[in-house]
Amino acid sequence: MSHFSSRKTLSQGILRRNIGELRELLYILELRDAFEDSENRPRMDMYETSGDIVIEFDLPGIRLDAISLKMRGMTLILEASKPREHNEGKFICVERCHGHFNHAVHIPGNVDPGAIRAEYRRGVLRVICPKRAELLIPIKEL
Predict the structure, then answer these.
(1) Domain 35-130 is in which class?
(2) Listing from the earlier edge strand, what are the strands of the sheet with 124-130?
(3) Rounded-to-integer distance, Cα 36 and Cα 26, Å
(4) Could you tell me if residue 122 is left (phi over 0), alpha (psi between -120 and 50 degrees) or otherwise beta?
(5) Which of 2, 33, 88, 116 is the most exposed, having the fewest neighbouring CB atoms within 10 Å of its CB?
(6) Confidence band (pLDDT; 50, 70, 90) for 38?
(7) 124-130/117-121 β-pairing
(8) Handedness of CA 11, 17, 22, 27 (dihedral sign)
(9) Cα 2 to Cα 48: distance, rounded to the nearest angstrom
């Protein structure tokens, strides 16, 4: 009888993990919907190296003190703002972005949230998310 109960416990653990992942993905979608369409999303690249997940955001002309980076679970939330420059003349063409910028990104893989670091250089915010070793789960014989 204990054999079946240990299978049930393992299945419940897998189900809880899957439900947690689904909740996190739904949270990301909710965050993206909460950001208004009129707000700008900075361009982003995400790539994986042997030891890291790296995310790079293009934020040209934005001061470092106008950038906020937060983690909620495995979701990285970027917020930044760039005021519109005031010029003496009348605009003929306006293509550069200004205003409030938001981006919510789900970080895939086995990442250590406590070891994430960020660098800002030449208008590019680089977020380095170190991978952690897989955790071995001890199995008890009953």
Answers:
(1) mainly beta
(2) 44-48, 52-58, 124-130, 117-121
(3) 17
(4) left
(5) 88
(6) very low
(7) antiparallel
(8) positive
(9) 42
pLDDT, residue 86, reads 74
The residue count for the chain:
142
CA torsion, points 81, 86, 92, 98, in degrees to nearest 10?
Answer: 0
Tokens of 70: 């937060």
End-to-end CA distance of the chain: 10
Whether the pLDDT of residue 4 is over 60: the answer is no
**Model confidence over 56-74: pLDDT tens digits?**
999 988 899 999 999 888 8
pLDDT beyond 60 at 6:
no
**pLDDT exceeds cutoff 80 at 51:** yes
Give yes or no for a contact between 142 and 2, defined as CB atoms under 8 angstroms apart.
yes
